[in-house]
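TL;DR need structure tokens for one chain.
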Amino acid sequence: MATPHVFKSGAGLAKPEWENNRQELQRVRRELEEVTAVASHDLREPLRMINLYTQYLLREYGGAFNNQAHEVARRIQDNVARMERLIQGVTEYSAPADKRFRATSLRKAAVRALEPFGARIESMGGTVEIGRLPLVLGDERQLQIVFRNLFSNSVKYAHTGRRLRIRIWGRRDGSIWTIYFSDNGIGFKPEFSQRIFGLFRRLHGREVPGTGLGLATSRQIIERHGGEIRAEGQPEKGATFIFTLKGFSRHAGRLANIARRGQSRRRFFV
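>> reply
TL;DR here they are.
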């Protein structure tokens, strides 16, 4: 009896077989992207209508509502907003990276990701310090998502007894950069350092707003870039997220894109 072949990798396969496997993987990925895009659109539309009808009821009949009715309307809108965040999170988690990695300023990605949080951090009396960050080989849009998720995490889990302080810096080891994103928030127990990267894993339940997708998405993006991400924390002492990325060089950029086809210190007072 012939021994069934178990596919493990492209190594040792005849070229036609390897090419068929590659084409099948590309086809499945395209289908997943299409399904995600369609589902995202089709799920958002009924949510939009629910929100519009709730606003209409409040505008036209809100004066006749009692306190309980107003509370029900508020809960409807809150849950619509939560569902929209979940859809956005799932879309980002499954979104493909740019087909060609290119020279990307990690500083620029961090600064752009900070923009939506500036007013909130300022109102908290917080500061953000961005140290030396490199050019890396990557997808700027997705790396912005990583920083955005980390900023969001720091704001959500800020310590109420002190002003929020966020520090970002990098260290080089040959062609690899290790990036540190540190805050002085409420932190977490060391035994949860892996759990927090799981899909829909949340340490504080619904008492803190969020989807449970941000860190899982960040991990997926870093791994797509050939890096790793981990977290260190202590209760009441803050958290530090550490990830690795390959620094950009023209030679490395050409090699990486072939394979895929086949700074001064600055402080932000915000």
